[in-house]
Write a structure and sequence with these properties.
357 residues, alpha+beta, Alpha-Beta Plaits, three-stranded antiparallel β-sheet, Peptide chain release factor 1, protein biosynthesis
């Protein structure tokens, strides 16, 4: 695997020269992709240089230890540091998901449990919003369908990373959230104090950078407008501002009524449609490449039960990685990093197995 480094460092130099060319920045989309790749390769270059330096230091310490015992004491520490540095380089060289640097559109949908499912959907939204805030990401509610008790039957939120690290986008962290989330607790509607089990679905789509990444012909769209409505069916708008977009070739339907402007709802709907089409293309490509598909911890089967939230025991459990902790209250306030890290680690191990490493 380490034989790749030389070629990647050469690519890093080429990208550095390209970024210095003013002509590149005339194409914003191209400049963004180059900047992302440069940031990714910069991490590999830096980690590799540190590994090489430690190797040189260890060799020198071993040589000097023959004459001075003081240097012999440094050898075990340098050996440990060298092994850690080598492991870091090895993991950085694992083939990455090409969508890792993207922003996402995350959708939370009610499942089994009716009103309780919708209420848990609101809890999940709050959890993701707090997590995004802790990462310095920006969030934007695109669409929401509230239930009578204040939960969400359906809510869609766009999550955008900051620009401090172009190589690490939202998708790299939240792509593992897609699936069925199970909650066990006493619902507010339960008069006997019995624990109920409900489910809420989460879908996560990488958002295209530019409209041209996903070609959509206007002839392939059926666009309907209608009056928006709120919880219980009451009208919340007296004009036909709600928009329903149907992509005829795939049958994908996106409905938006969150904004009072028909134009704004249409723009939000097109963002979601492009993201869903991009995800569909990725699924088709993954299905064709079975080796690549098997290296993904993230399943395309949206019916998979991925996690259980047990409120009476304050327990959170991820069924894919085996992660379990008794700090559910903290997780629901956005402390998701250990859970997501367990998914990332398993994903990396699966990728390494696929490579025969």
């Amino acid at each position: 695997m380490f034989e790749q480094v030389s070629g990647l460092i050469n690519e890093h130099t080429e990208l550095q020269n390209e970024l210095a060319d003013p002509a590149l920045h005339a194409d914003a989309a191209r400049a963004k992709r180059v900047n992302r790749r440069y940031a990714e390769l910069s991490k590999i270059k830096s980690a590799h240089e540190h590994w090489v330096q430690l190797g040189d230091d260890l060799e020198a310490a071993r040589e000097l230890a023959k004459e001075d015992d003081a240097f012999a004491e440094e050898v075990p520490l340098l050996e440990t540091q060298l092994a850690e540095a080598q492991e870091k380089v090895r993991r950085l060289l694992i083939p990455r998901d090409p969508d890792d640097a993207r922003d996402v559109i995350l959708e939370i949908k009610g499942g089994e449990g009716g009103a309780e499912s919708a209420l848990f959907g609101a809890d999940l939204l709050r959890m993701y919003m707090h997590y995004a805030e802790s990462k310095g990401w920006k969030t934007e509610i695109l669409e929401k369908d509230e239930s009578d008790l204040g939960g969400y039957k359906n809510v869609q939120v766009a999550i955008k990373a900051n620009a401090s690290d172009p190589s690490q986008g939202v998708w790299a962290h939240l792509k593992y959230e897609g699936g069925v989330h199970r909650v066990q607790r006493v619902p507010v509607t339960e008069s006997q104090g019995r624990i109920h089990t409900s489910t809420t679905g989460v879908l996560v789509y990488p958002e295209p950078d530019e409209a041209e990444e996903v070609e959509i012909s206007q002839n392939d769209l059926k666009i309907d407008v209608y009056r928006s409505s709120g919880p219980g069916g009451q009208s919340v708008n007296t004009t036909d501002s709600a928009v329903r977009i149907t992509h005829l070739p795939t049958g994908i339907v996106v409905a938006m009524q969150n904004e009072k402007s028909q134009l704004q709802n249409r723009e939000a709907g097109m963002r979601v449609l492009r993201a869903r089409l991009l995800a569909r293309l990725a699924e088709e490509a993954a299905a064709e490449a079975s080796a690549h598909r098997s290296s993904q911890i993230r399943t395309m089967d949206r019916s998979e039960r991925i996690r259980t939230y047990n409120f009476p025991e304050n327990r959170i459990a991820d069924h894919r990685t085996g992660y379990k902790a008794y700090n559910l209250d903290q997780v629901m306030n956005g402390s998701m990093e250990p859970i997501i890290e367990s998914c990332i680690r398993m994903d990396e191990e699966e990728r390494l197995k696929a490579l025969g490493q």
